[in-house]
UniProtKB/TrEMBL annotation:
Residues 45-65, 304-329, 450-473 are annotated as: Disordered. It comes from the Eukaryota. It comes from Cyclotella cryptica. Residues 304-323, 456-470 have a biased composition (Acidic residues). SUPFAM superfamilies: ARM repeat. This is Nuclear cap-binding protein subunit 1.
Amino acid sequence: MKHAAGEVRPVVQAIGRNIQDLVEVLCSPSNSGLFLRFGEDTADGNANTDDAEGMEDSNANMDASSPKQVDAATKAGPLATLIHSCATNLPLQTPSYAALTLGVECTAPSSHAGFALRCVELGIKCLGRDLDMMLDCRLVGTESKVVNDSQEKDEGERCHAEKTGGYGNGSQIDAYYRAKFMLRYLAHLANIGIVSCKQQPNNNDGNNLSLLGLLQLLVQCACNAASSAASSSGRAALRRTSVILASLVLSTIPYLNLEDVNNMVVDLLEELETHVVGQSYSSDYEPGVGWQAILLNGELDDQAGEATAEDEEDDDDDDEGDDAPAPSCADTLQDLLRTVRKLVNPSPQNQVRPSRFALLGDAPWKTLKSNATTPDNMEDVEGGTSEELTVPMTYMGEPLLLDLVGSDEEKHCKCVPYLLSLGGGFSNEDNIEVNCRLLDGILYGRLAIFDAPPGPDEEENDDEDEEDAKESDPNLECYVKSYSLIDRFFLSDAIRDVLMCHRPMVNDAGADRSTAKEVAEQIWMLSHLCHPESLTEESEGEISSSNASDVSKGIEYGIVETLLSLIVQSAPRCCNVPASSAVNQHLYLARVLLELTKLKPSLVPRAIVLAISGMFEDFIPSLTPVARENLATWLAIHLANTDYQWPKSFWDHWAPYVASGRTRNSRGDFVTIVLHSMAGLSSDGAVAIVKDCLPPKSPLVRSVFLTTTEESSTSAAEDDLIDRFWNASHDPDSIRQFIISDEFTSDMTAIEDENEDHSMFHRSVWWRTGMATRALLHSISREKARVARLVERISNQVGNAVRDDPMISDDLKDEVDPTEDVLTDISDAIFRFKPVILAALARDADAYDSIATGRVDDDQLLLAGEVFILDQFENVIPSWDSVTHNVSIESLMKSKIVSPVAVATWTLRFHNSSPRVISPQWWKCVSLAVHSAITSVEGHLLT
């Protein structure tokens, strides 16, 4: 990358001074023997070995004739190992570790010379190991891994549960990030001159490589994998392999000095674009097509309510003739390729600095100084008498070459020879194959929530309304106008790196590391990695006096945009879908954004409000159901933890989308899920939301929480059943005998509902089952009625003073039995009264079979009865109580009262011939059904 001449940021100068002081301490005659020891000197076992400690075991060849491996950490020494660990785990300080490497190399006494060589050798050996682990190399036809990740012993590594949890690719994700950061560290060393950058090897065997030669080798491997995957005998694992290798190469290029290697880099990009990330590339996040898509192929047809129809009609008029496509969401690989293209071929106005992201060009090694002895015949400098002259520190040795593959005696990497063999000319001597199963945790979709930066030919004042809106928030205007697409990509990429590397963890020993608050602080540190908006001769001199907050003005919008884009694509909650990495965990991202809100209360909350406002208007109809659910549940968690602080105007604007009688729409579903999720997070349920969150007299109360009509009074027979279930504590067997007796039948001779077509799904067929189920759910019905009374009373109050009346809180407490736990009671009652429900179900089925004309399918008849039971649960359980809803369905399937097929049939409304709206939570119920079915099959196989 091209940098402005002589520019060193003040913070980088301070870092350089700190490194200078540290180097002097480490390399002093009294300390060098302690800190710089290596090889045999570290045999006492006190070296800090970090993730490289298990190199001997983790590089072990699965073949019986494998050569003896060398412990690379012991050979390199503790300081080199520590620098390697930091460089591969702390993504925001890589230039500092490169500068420290130079400082020790140039200052160390002759007895400990060769420090840079030891750092590079250790790094390249671990890079080979990580490549094998990242691509999950195995012996052909076996499950034997080339790299045994169980040998890693660092306290910062994932615990066993995290390695094997999720999709089982936790170790592969960690290896990818280590390889990414190691290549970045090598790029900085190449900029210093320690590692050869342009010198090309004489052969292509994976050894004696310059850095560009190493990147060219990885590009060749990626192209070979992509070509093999495209052939008739290719495997999907090879396609994913090509994508990962392309991502590594593209992630390294921005940190090179592109001014010197531009033509070579252009050739690499053309190869990748032709064979890997070109037109033939199909993203898993492609809207409406990819299986991980965030956006639908188009917007849902949401008809506007009365209060918003006129406004949206005006918007349609403004958009007439605008054939621009819906907001696109490319994955991070496509975004990375576009960004690197812009860096390699910057626009004329960005020749000095294509990006404001300072980490690309920070060079603390430029501030390091060393002492040089003056010649005897040279006059004293500036009248001084010293014989030493302070000069910039420079690496004086030969640039180092990289041995990625290694020799036959010490093999570092096995995947590269295998991938080279796919192109011919090499043989797969180690008999291995790659088994890269997933890209989760490596590639992500990106949702551009805020406006793109204006182009050079666009007019500044083309929309008065938009300009007025931005004048009210200068930070948003600054973000939109001064953060280019390049800046936004590197900001998002750095945020993902921080989220991954600083994630809170608990190791197998029980020790924890990091917190959500510390992660938020690390993310906000990115505000110190921004250059001023533009670089001119005048502004260059003002860098030292610039306020950091002014330099990074508007960065909170980029942070919120990135976190929300990750939240919408996180692993779905409450449907047994695991998260492959921390960056895919919904609750982790919600906690980090909450901590950022507390850390910067004057900036982040406003950015969140404007982001949600824009997403509600522009993205909600285009989001997939899972993405819309993720966004809604996150907003519920956020509001529940910030005392429900949300603008009243938003609730008023959203209310018409959920109005009674309104056709179901995506925005209405979003608002409903937000309110239902908030109610589920409070012990007081809907009462807390109506009392503390919604404005007084809000129509949302009736349209969301008071949607059910008044139920008719129960019959004497049903009251008798309720008494037997809950009050008299009759034995389930006696209740079963009673419900199938003729005495009970004679009490229910009149069913005022005609079943004209004699459908087995009609409610009159299952009247015994219905009464038994409603009696089972009596405690929920009573609780639902209590909450409805309180909600009605609170919603009719006017003014916050009346709504905060302590009498309402007293009524809330008085009506609750402190010993009652509805969820536990229902969960236990389902198993206890299972014989009663099944007896009623069998009795109703026999009655229908006896009067039906023709042959009745017994399986279909029982399915109809199970669906009816689920209907009764849906009618009784409050719509906002998703916890009770999910627990009840799981208990019904575990007790085998209903089958997973019945749950899927019920939630997708396959049993209903008349049009009926599918539940907004259909995919959750189907997931529960599939999970239950798989678990049941596994249980049978194990027994």
